[in-house]
Amino acid sequence: MLFNPSTYDPKQFDDTTRRLLRATVDWFESRGKKALIDTYIDRAWYGDFLEFAAKEGLFAEFLTPSAADGDKRWDTARIAELNEILGFYGLGYWYTWQVTILGLGPVWQSENEAVRARAAKLLSEGHVMAFGLSERSHGADIYSTDMILTPTADGGFTATGPKYYIGNGNVAGLVSVFGRRSDVEGPEGYVFFAVDSRHEAYHLVKNVVNAQMYVSEFRLEEYPVRAEDVLHTGKAAFDAALNTVNVGKFNLCTASIGICEHAMYEAVTHAHNRVLYGRKVTDFPHVRRELTDAYTRLVAMKLFSDRAVDYFRSASPEDRRYLLFNPMTKMKVTTEGEKVIDLMWDVIAAKGFEADTYFDKAAKDIRGLPKLEGTVHVNLALILKFMANYLFAPTDYPPVPTRLDPADDEFLFRQGPARGLGAIRFHDWRTAYDAHAHLPNVARFREQADGLCALLLEHAPTAEQQQDLDFLLEIGQLFALVVYGHLVLEQAELTGTEPDLLDGIFDFLVRDFSAHATELHGKTSTSEPQAAWALSQVRRPVADAERTAKLWARVEALSGAYEMRP
């Protein structure tokens, strides 16, 4: 179930994709663990990786849609695969790729053919891109920006203002920058425009993080913006910002998976070969429980994310279900990644601090992913917008197949206005649960999911509670678990996941639902009937010694299964 460089063969993809993915793995493996760790500790810019990517045409092949180059494609399935590989070797390598994706979002959504051609050429030359949205004073609040465009007599503008927390801002061949006109009030004044970081009016201030990656602060001082540099204006610029984040936000889940996979090989191998108090560490029951919990959570992360890819690739104006599964991958999968690392860290303890381990870096970097492209709270609030239709108003859709075909996901660059989320409809979530009702913990979790529906129908949040975000976010956590289990079940059905493994996944989902119900019980604004409901939903998962032994055998087999060359 886990990515293993020693045996990796992405045979599900075409020859070009297979060659590039395998070449990427081989580049890291030939470089070795010492170089990986030393450059991380020294915060060395990863110019050697960018040279490799440029030589192989990696970013150009994976990030150029067919509309810009008919020989290439934007394929979310293979993009997700590369996310996982780059995360496996280090967040910095993933980050430079991720912010290139964000920088390209407004370009590929634009009808400006000149900038599109420029971006395609820059990619082919090995350049990376940047996304100039955030500002120090406003964060990613795109309603407010201090980047001001002043009209000039020739029909263009001069742009003056700061941007902050902009990845690749030190080397980007093209920076997509968001600002507003000085002479137009409101949303009609928004402008997205293309900037060259090598221009004399582009001033790089500093790297704002203490890390290998370069997360820049820059400032434009009367930067000349020609008409041919403008990507979007007015409400279209606002939509381009949100729709770009829709595309880029998804990448965080598979990066988190890659980080956890590498850390798991290291942690299990260490624990299984260590003797304390005369016993092998992995003979202690609590150690087996924690490592098994970490493993089942990691497998669930993969199952959910892989299935979400299918909904992205099958999206259309009539099917926007991906807009729920997107913040789910961003919020739920990445926070699960934190839990996976914490569970393993409890086992390996001091080893997790050692400088010559990958785990030490994973433990630091895994924290960042839930905090990029919007916080957990922002994404939970977004998820809540879909809850009523998802739970109570299912509709029919044709089945969404596994999408590994070499198609161009062109809809992602014509998503349209970023509104109407509450009107999006979903297929019946109960169908997937019913198909697996024979598994004890799936059945038990289904009881809890039905209980959530009963709560919302019989003791719905009052008008006052709907203004209490602290209360609503706990409802959001309960709802997110139902969605999470839904796609896990769908992917398990498509891939033939073993029943014992699937039941083990729902063991922790039952416990997690019980924990969030307990949190809801303790909220100050929770009513007495709601509090009584919360206690009624606390469940114990169904125990099964034989299943537990089979799951442990899976974890135990990871010991020595992969170790990066020195």
How is this structure best described in words?
The chain has 566 residues and is of the alpha+beta class. Among the domains are: 15-127, Orthogonal Bundle (Butyryl-Coa Dehydrogenase, subunit A, domain 1); 130-233, Beta Barrel (Butyryl-CoA Dehydrogenase, subunit A, domain 2), CATH 2.40.110; 422-543, no CATH class. Helix content is 53%, strand content 10%. The protein has helices at 15-31, 33-41, 47-56, 58-63, 76-89, 91-109, 113-124, 235-249, 251-272, 285-313, 322-348, 358-365, 376-384, 387-392, 430-435, 440-458, 469-495, 499-522, 528-536, 545-556, and strands spanning 129-132, 148-151, 157-167, 174-181, 190-195, 202-207, 215-225, 230-233, 275-276, 279-280. Strand 2 (148-151) and strand 3 form a beta hairpin. Helix 16 (440-458) packs parallel to helix 18.
Describe the protein's topology.
Elements: H1 15-31, H2 33-41, H3 47-56, H4 58-63, H5 76-89, H6 91-109, H7 113-124, E1 129-132, E2 148-151, E3 157-167, E4 174-181, E5 190-195, E6 202-207, E7 215-225, E8 230-233, H8 235-249, H9 251-272, E9 275-276, E10 279-280, H10 285-313, H11 322-348, H12 358-365, H13 376-384, H14 387-392, H15 430-435, H16 440-458, H17 469-495, H18 499-522, H19 528-536, H20 545-556
Parallel strand pairs: 1-4, 2-4
Antiparallel strand pairs: 2-3, 3-7, 4-5, 5-8, 6-7, 9-10
Helix pairs in contact: 1-5, 5-6, 5-9, 6-8, 9-10, 9-11, 9-12, 10-11, 10-17, 10-18, 10-20, 11-13, 13-17, 16-18, 17-18, 18-19, 18-20
